[in-house]
Amino acid sequence: MKTFTATPSDIRHEWFVVDAEGLVLGRLAAEVAKILRGKHKPTFTPHMDTGDFVIVINAAKVKVTGKKIEQKQYFRHTGYMGHERYTSLGTMLAKHPERVIEKAVYGMLPKSTLARQKLRLKLRVYAGGDHPHVAQQPKPLTLKTAEAK
Known about the structure:
Elements: E1 15-19, H1 25-37, E2 53-57, H2 68-71, E3 73-77, E4 84-88, H3 89-95, H4 97-108, H5 113-122, E5 123-125, E6 139-140
């Protein structure tokens, strides 16, 4: 038995579009992270970029369970001592719904330069239902996650 390692000639990148309307944020992020890494393919190799491109539309209509809208906080630091800033999920969804999904997917990827590169180049998130990537002919992707009730 020999371990398979993908080479650049083995890699084929596809485009997928995911409609986030009514999907639970964490379950959506887990599936998107899996597709970005390429773990859904038999040619998955951890140190190679075998993942696919993902377009997420309707990011503003994503669902969360429990009291996360009020209680979940996003942290950032201004660079000055004691200047921590916290933003609630409800505020973030109202102002920048794309960032909510980007941060959730980032949390599900390994912390490496390859993962940051995949996030920057292969993930496209849009608040509305339109996207400018029609020329890539993305395939619609229905996730196995259960919709919020």
